[in-house]
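User: We ran a pulldown and think these components assemble together. Before we commit to crystallization trials, I'd like a predicted model of the whole complex to look at. Sequences follow.
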Amino acid sequence: MARRVFRGGVHPPEHKDATAGSAIQWAPVPSQLVVPMSQHLGAPCQPLVEKGDRVERGQVIGSVDAMVSAPVHSPVSGTVTAVAKTLTPGGTSSVAVVIEPDETQDRESFVTVPEAEDRDRVRAAGIVGMGGATFPSVVKLTPPKGMAVDTVIVNGCECEPFLTCDHRVMLEQPERVVAGAAHIKRIVGAARVVIAVESNKPDAAEALRQAAGDTAEVVVLPTRYPQGAEKQLIYALLSKEVPHGKLPAATGALVHNVATAVAIADALEHGKPLTERVVTVTGAVARPGNYRVLIGTSVADLIEHAGGLVGDVERVIAGGPMTGQALGSLDVPVTKGTSGIVALAAGVAAPAVSDDQPCIRCGRCPEGCPMGLEPYAIANHAYRRQWDAAAERHATDCIECGVCSYVCPTGRPLVQLIRLAKAAAMSKGGN
Amino acid sequence: MAGLTGRRVVGPSPHIKEGTTCTSIMLWVVAALAPSALWAVVTMGWVAAQLLIVCIVVSLATEYGANLLARRPQTLTDGSALVTGLLLAMSLPPRTPWWVAAAAAIIAIGLAKQLFGGLGHNLFNPALVGRAFVAVSWAGVLAAAPNRGWFQTLPDVTAEGLDTISGATRLAVAAADRAASGAYGFDLAAEYQPLLWKNLEGSLGEISAALLIAGGLLLIVKGIIDWRIPAGYIGTMAIVSLLFGADPVFHVLAGGVMLGAFYMATDYVSSPMSKSGRLAYGIGCGLFNAVGRFVGAMPESTTFAILFMNGLAPLIDRMSRPRTFGWVKRDA
Ligand code: SF4
Ligand code: SF4
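Assistant: Here's a predicted model for the assembly, 763 residues in total across the polymer chains.
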């Protein structure tokens, strides 16, 4: 298989040592769960329960009849105490079902997802991309007509600094990753499976190799951010570029995150809905680690379980530090897409940006951009509200990886400005 | 809430940042040039120190004053005015009268940089504009400087005159000899050592090519400058020298080539941004520098070659835009 190195990228300090060795442990059942109806890209769910209702673990508590959506299930048995608005880690507001869990919880039993055709079962299990994109998995498993998937790529790169949840899943449950990959391969009728791991996780690659035998190829890629970005990953493995404006499936590749693959295997083999996930809690906390967390557990509870924040914490991030969201409040629930909670101490966190810093034309952002853009130029246009000019510089091809802002020596808010340019271009209906 | 400070920031991603800042870049340039500047003071004495002080102080003061006038935030801490002052001093001969040096610094910062809008907006390298200004306005003053007692303070200077950034005396002699007889009147290879370590005939930046090269390599290793510019520049200079039947080693060591190639042409603001563009730009600098030296016998060929390429940098940028990933070709 032809291997390529994707263009640009950076290698930030990894900060993974703190948690790479910590086995996944259950986080405790909190006194209250706030389960948002919108944890995915696409149409938000309608709550199906009311205040006072009893719910069982695995019971559907929210759904909506839309192609791009994912139902929501109760992570515990308990009582609905409210249906109310909540803030999500993404900073948006969503209706949520608030559940008070029963005193005793049986973590082994749950209401199973009814037997059905594979895709329908994946849909009914509420599975979304767990690497952070939260795109409903069933949609990806249903490529448009005329697009044949040839290669299933299971993404175990975990190129974001600090995060080790995928690493632990690959190390501790390699056979589940392989099983999930096999299901995906069967569903889409692909010819082969490739599992991609960055070179900083040789133990995970070895575990996967053992588990996979000759059912899947395990490929170790250089440790370089954003190796795990879909287009960069496909290019690195298949030497194919996803054409502008096309789906990745246009290259014959289908990429799923390792945790998503496990969730798919659990749904198809055990009828298990997605109600928990592994979250790396790290940075300036007393007991960094990888925790198996019930969806709806508040970030504050989770941080407390990890021993609390330590020292002068400047930002708390949901997700990784390159693309995650800085939390304004810790009273937000962990959702299906929350891969990490990273507390950044002063000095580790990026200094505040200011948008009147000059571009000194150092060339770092165009060199680092994995999409071959000229971030400084798009940002300059966006700063002057020249939206058409920004679009001509292919603003909409930006994958918002953050490399440009990360490297800019004058600290210009490049991604932010480019996001504005993208939004302006999208609202005009262009792509 | 437990352990939260009032300083918590809800900024946009990314939430971590590479440590390189504008100031750290500028300080690396200063660090790379420091040995050359100190060596200049050691070998030439107070005149060199005086030139350095005048250029740097006036550059900083002009930056400060221009920001005041334009009601812009002060920018002294970004380090760019310091670098301009230092580079300007390195490009001038030690006996440059203080008021000429001061005028050059005012032109460099006030005209070439601040009038264009400050750091990042200037088309031309400010230090070189200052240097060119002196060359054009006070060529006589510079040329006359040695006759006013310069030699007494420097007993080991052997040749006759302080020349400009690209017109070191040995260079002028070599050119004259070549023109007259088609051959050199002295052994060029014997000049390598003095040019590398202790050549007191030109600007501060011509004293030791070795120290300048060492600093330049440091900047390349540290990722501050792109090797393509000095490599293209010096490589082209050497090749063209060969084509003209001249000694390539002598010609890259003599004159202001090392200062120009490693420190002037690599100025971010006035050079192209893409890798291929930088290589082309470096080659262009070397080509024009060599042509100026061999064809025109122009004394300021280094200064004007780089300034000329500064002017072409936007065009080079436009012609060397990267191809967007996923696009078959750039629709420019
Ligand atoms: S422009 Fe977009 S794709 Fe390029 S580095 Fe910046 S965020 Fe990443
Ligand atoms: S990284 Fe910053 S200073 Fe450098 S070219 Fe890009 S925008 Fe300009």
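Chain A touches chain B through 74 residues (CB under 8 Å). That may be worth checking against your pulldown data before setting up trials.

User: Thanks, that helps.
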